[in-house]
Amino acid sequence: MQNRNHRSPLKPSVLAVIGVLAAIGAQAQETTAPATTTTEANSAEEQVVVVSGFRASLNSALNTKRASDGIVDVIKAEDIAKFPDANLAESLQRVPGVSLTRGDGGEGKQITVRGLNAGFTRVRINGIEGVTATGASDINGSTNRGRGFDFSVFASELFNSLEVRKTSEAAVEEGSLGATVDLRTGRPFDFKGRTFSIGAQGMHNSVSKTRDPRVTALYSDRWKTSYGQFGALISGAYSKRTAQEEGYEAVELLSASNDGGFCSPLGAGVQNPANNTVKGVTAASCGFGVPRTSNPTAYNDVMGRTDNYGGTVANPLPGSGAFAPRIPRFRRSLTEYERTGLTGALQWRPSSATELNLDLMGGKFNNKRYDNYISAISFGRSMGQSNGKPQTSIVDAHFNDNGSWDYGRFNAVDIRTEGLLDVYSTTFKQYVLSGRHDVTDRLKLDFLSGRSRSDLDEPQRTTVQFDSPNANGYSFDFRNNRNVPSINFGIDVTNPNNFSFAPQEADGTFHGQFVGRYLHTRNTLKTNQVTAAYEASDNLTLRTGLSRRNNSWTNVEIGSGGNGLTLPAGVTMDAISRQISGFGKGLGGSGVPGSWAAVDLDKFLSVYNIECHCAAVPGSEYNYLNQANRGVEEKIDAAFLMADFNYDLFNIPLRGNVGIRHARTEMNSFALVNANGALERVRGRNRYNDYLPALNVSATLHKDVMLRFSAGKTLARPEYTDLAPSSTLNTQVQTVTIGNPNLSPIRAKTFDLQAEWYYDKNAMVSVGAFHKKIGTFIQGVSDRAVFSSLGLPESVLLGGGCSITGGTPACATLPNTTVVVNRQVNTPGGPLTGYEFNLQAPFSFLPGIWSNFGLLANYTYVDSKITYITRVDNPNTPANEQLTKRANFTGLSPKAHNLTLFYEDKKFSARVSAAHRSAYLLNVLGDVQGHDFTTVDGSTNVDFSMSYNLTPQLRLSFEGQNLNDTPLRYGRDSQRNDTLLYVHSGRTFVVGMNYKY
User: Fold this and answer.
1) Residue 746 covered by a domain
2) Which positions, given as ranges, span the membrane (predicted)?
3) Which among 40, 81, 343, 524 is least surrounded, fewest beta carbons within 10 Å?
4) Radius of gyration of the chain, Cα coordinates, nearest whole angstrom
5) pTM of the model
């Protein structure tokens, strides 16, 4: 056989083969037909050689990148059980085009690739897809239930390499518009022989003031026997972390006209609220013991501001243009994390032609989060709920030039202290059996069979609230600090006796409540695949493969809750409270309470065990009839045909691949709905086919210069939560919120062009451009439909003895009623275009010690245009035209860049890194509620790491994370830029040691 590196001129017959494959791809169209399951065919995994040192890991990764056919970025372990960052997501943000989304406590959770959020990126572990779901704070969505991968579940030490594949390939599993991320755990054949490593670290955070441990270990060995080579590896990682996050949040921004408006002044032309003997409302008072004290000037300033909400309201209500925080509050979150991970691997190589691998992985991520809030609750309460805003008087008000309500003083404000305990765990288990066999020197077979399962179990999410109704003199003031207001609560919030926990009064006055929740989410993914590769010549290899994948997602959520209860005799508020102290250090702003009386959940549960969910504690029983119980199953069959080529064209070496992948998807979903007091199962089903061509070409223009081009069709399947036919019905206002099993995937055509110059040993500079033509998108809209067309049982309309068949009284909503339907639908997509710059520059050209330095730098710019439907019709126009807003993808930072300066010699290594992403859209609201966008401010995070090798076996290390204590800020509305959230979590320092042999 000839040398594999030899290239022949490109022959007409070969051009014909490639042309046929390309033509098949060019003509392939999506079709709708019976469908079932997708999987992928992996090419044989190359052996990973564990390197030692940061510089060596960069060099190894660069070699992998250079040898790839598509556009790929790689991160390798620096040493045995030593990844460059403590968190995989933190490492990923160093990759060009990758931005990090941080969760509670400041830790990296998910990634955005080239502007596309975590739902568009598939993550595979040892060749099969993994999904991990975790919990979150209320303002961050409470729970991740989607397809996105949460990197905080795993310790980075469990992995040997990380690969980000930004272009598609026929042999690679479909399902990603952003990137396919491959994580690889260690195997015994990665090492030359017996290997052992153990490490220990201690962590300290500047806000939580805690010291937490982190331990890792790895053992690997391999043996030669008469039956071939055997190898075994086991590794483990354990860490405990206490994160404390402090800050301010508004929960929402509501207009003064919401929830019935404010209490009008004495003698106002229009009295608000109207007289009500039950509530104690008269011309002189807005409730029992609540006199009308609004200042006419301030009141008129507020209520005189109007907003037509993007032209959707013909006669705006008074106050519709003045926006105040719904629940202005300070929060301290204390989260205790415990992360445990284990990997195992067995390998058998009976001959050089055959190899079998068994990879095992398990992990558990335990969380216990305590949230304590001190807040004003009445700005988000209506009169009918619990009095609230209509009893609150406006004493003074100020608006800045942008129209933001930056100062207000009020009377009769309800103050609340709230405690939340969220206990949840994520458990991950996976096995993968894979192998290869060289049938001949030209025919090779590979197989892979595996299963991963992730369980998010939340047995307890308990909230208890104590209230202090009708406090006078409350104020918020953003004039000196737009992020952290100065708040005067009008009472001594450190005194627990100023709060109460008791039943609601006859006039609606509230004295606290409690809420509970149970949640369980399971993701199960099974993959079976076989591939074959035939080396037709030294320059052409034909590949084909079949795969089947079964994905299953289930989600159960059950809630409970009740109003305040009468405390037993002798139990005082002091007995069920504790003091928050030392709050706000490093947060900024003035007028921040350093302490307040907080709910002590342990003490409260000893008085009222609301977690019994039983009749003995009224209100604690689970509401089984209104539970969320839903699931989705996907069966995806896939096949591919691909050609690898390696030729000279006009004396220019060309290599790459061209092929097509066919994926047939069958989706079945279900949900339980409350049908007049009984749970009834509703089902949904969908099928579709996709033909996905892909081309990757690399041309060596010069021995050190490469030009890459890639083109293909890709897809991203809808989120599971959107596919389940669960529903929420309000018969009185004739509104239905429902899932949509008929959603089609988001489909796109992609094009990439990148030039790379390997200008020196272990050095590279590259520049590239990419374009994605996204044909379809998915977004939530409100439209109108006849109820009977929604596929829900008619019995859900019944209740209170009403009739849907002509009897009396008639139900408020009937089967033939046209209702407002809130659901996710397929809408037109749009273009996404960007470019990337990447530099890896060791300073080896410098003399002496300076040659040990080096620089890593990258920059990404992305722009996209999606038309968001903000309302399906405009009642102010005769045509009722659709209202839309054109904007970037949510989660897309137009600009992102990273910079790392490093130094390394034989004993000492150090580096400092800065990662920046510009502001991005969290959601698009379109002015319909008075806000156009929710944005997340841009951020820069600075980290450093250093280590010293005392001996070839013993290494000491010191690391610093988030050195600049970067805050997380959400803003509401691009003009006003009101603060929705502002929190920080402090700096973390880590010292450690590692021993290996």
Assistant:
1) yes
2) none
3) 524
4) 31
5) 0.90
